[in-house]
Design a protein that fits this description.
By secondary structure, the protein is mainly β. The protein has 1 helix and 28 strands.
């Protein structure tokens, strides 16, 4: 009896711990057979998500219901971001990577909250595709009044080439730039302000030769330099999060086919991105990492191919949680003293 009682107590404790840390709830969305890549909200109720079927969905009730705004066959929407309730941008992965993708336009824009979308013109070299968009809101004095400027940064892509496209006038004009000298693939970008930021990258477009890579810019993306590079082949970085100016985290993807190579890692900085330390996530050859998001410097989440992981001690330890399969993007927001977030992969989740 004592042994049975002990096991029961342990089971209850484990269940209680899991429930206490599982902050996310799955939302009712249109079924999709694979990984959906990005979701973006401008307030707790109003947001959009995209997928590879050329679809963009919008909610105005915090994800209770969703309206399909566009379905564009041949387009693989990869990333999305909005300046406000009307002005937004959606990036595509481009051709020659996924099957049945024919759209060669890398970036679309909307002026009416997503009711209509049109190609966003740009100058510079051709951009094959984009994987991430970040927007920086800059406060300035305009004729004696506080006003704001918006800077839009986008990078891509998986499978190469490494390109960036930037706007410093709220998306009125865009300029593209090759980052081929710094990296061969680009997956995510996080700007701390209009000048300084970081990009997740890979050293080679041949995954068998690739090291995970993080790039740093201090001039708004004009130049980039290496601040972290893994020593193992078959690796890339994927997504990045900075819960504070000094503390940041990024996921490392391993494509090593050897099942004995099971250790999964993240990287962390505590000095504003100058240096990065590898931390163990889990020992599971199938746990390919995707999204990362943090509530604060200590409390955060990582999505993997099968499940999610949560830490409350800055990545020293992790517990499994339900974020669905292939949780690719985790966006956490702080508004009026409240913290809330959304995550997307095969399904869409809300915190």
């Amino acid at each position: 009896m004592k042994k049975i009682f002990a096991i029961s107590i342990f089971t209850l404790f484990a269940s209680y711990t899991f429930c206490q840390t599982a902050l996310w709830q799955k939302l009712n969305t249109e079924a999709y057979p694979g990984k959906q890549d990005d979701i973006f909200f401008i307030d707790p109720n109003t947001g959009w998500y995209v997928n590879g079927f050329g679809k963009i969905f919008k909610t105005t009730d915090g994800g209770v219901s969703w309206t399909k705004q566009i379905e564009q066959k041949g387009t693989f929407f990869r990333c999305i971001a909005f300046i406000d309730g009307l002005r937004g941008f959606a990036g595509t992965v481009g051709t020659d990577y996924f099957p049945n993708v024919t759209d060669t336009m890398p970036l679309y824009q909307t002026f009416d909250g997503g009711k209509t979308w049109s190609p966003a013109p740009y100058t510079g070299p051709y951009v094959k595709g984009l994987c991430a968009i970040d927007i920086v809101k800059e406060q300035y004095i305009n004729h004696g009044q506080i006003d704001f400027k918006y800077h839009v940064y986008a990078v891509g892509r998986v499978g190469s080439p490494a390109m960036a496209i930037t706007s410093h006038d709220g998306g009125k004009t865009f300029v593209s730039k090759s980052l081929d000298e710094a990296a061969k693939m680009l997956f995510d970008i996080r700007m701390l302000d209009k000048k300084e930021g970081f990009a997740c990258a890979a050293t080679s477009d041949d995954i068998t030769q690739s090291n995970a890579l993080i790039l740093h810019t201090t001039d708004g993306g004009e130049t980039w330099h290496n601040v972290y590079q893994s020593s193992r082949p078959f690796e890339t970085t994927w997504k990045i999060a900075f819960p504070s100016r000094q503390v940041g985290y990024a996921t490392i993807q391993s494509y090593n086919p050897d099942p004995e190579v099971a250790q999964q890692r993240i990287v962390k900085t505590t000095d504003g991105g100058k240096t990065w330390q590898e931390l163990p996530l889990c020992t599971d050859a199938q746990a390919r990492e995707f999204g990362v998001g943090f509530i604060d410097e200590l409390h955060g989440f990582v999505g993997t191919m099968n499940i999610g992981y949560e830490t409350t001690d800055g990545g020293k330890s992790w517990l499994p949680i339900d974020l669905g399969r292939a949780c690719n993007k985790i966006r956490i927001y702080h508004t009026d003293g409240k913290t809330w977030g959304y995550a997307i992969g095969v399904g869409v989740y809300k915190m």
